[in-house]
Amino acid sequence: MKKRTLLTGAVAVTALAAAGLATYRKSTVEITSVERMLTLLDSLKSRQLAAKSGWSPYKVFVHLAQSIQYSMSGYPELKSEVFQHTAGSAAFYAFSVAGAMRHNLTEPIPGAPAIADEGNVNEAIDLVIAALQQFQAYRGQLQPHFAYGLLSKTEFAHAHVMHIENHLLEMQT
Q: What pTM did the predictor assign?
């Protein structure tokens, strides 16, 4: 009974968060496709980027490339199936409905190798671009997201774009 109460509570909290996120939607990026995101990312290479808070731009872009790659190769650690089918899928649904993601911007992907704090930002942006292009061309079976569970290619593309947007909102150009 305690597990059921906990899961019900998690779903309710996620639903309330979704309502708050829908009103939060202050994004100035608002890219809706991988193709448009690729164009934006390429344009960032000519700019001086700085983090408003949290991770350095280099670390952010390597993290984003990791996430995209893991959708094809498999995430190092997964949340439980119960989590994926309840709170995880509810969170993805809420983000999708809101058209934006809001998450802890300094939380690494569970089980992923540590990322250096500093490095060549343009090379890191190129990693994201290459990962997105590989994702677009990928015809194999996608792996479950560590929190959201199984997603279609369209859903994963949307998740990747929202993830990138959320991180870009914390950068100054």
A: 0.84
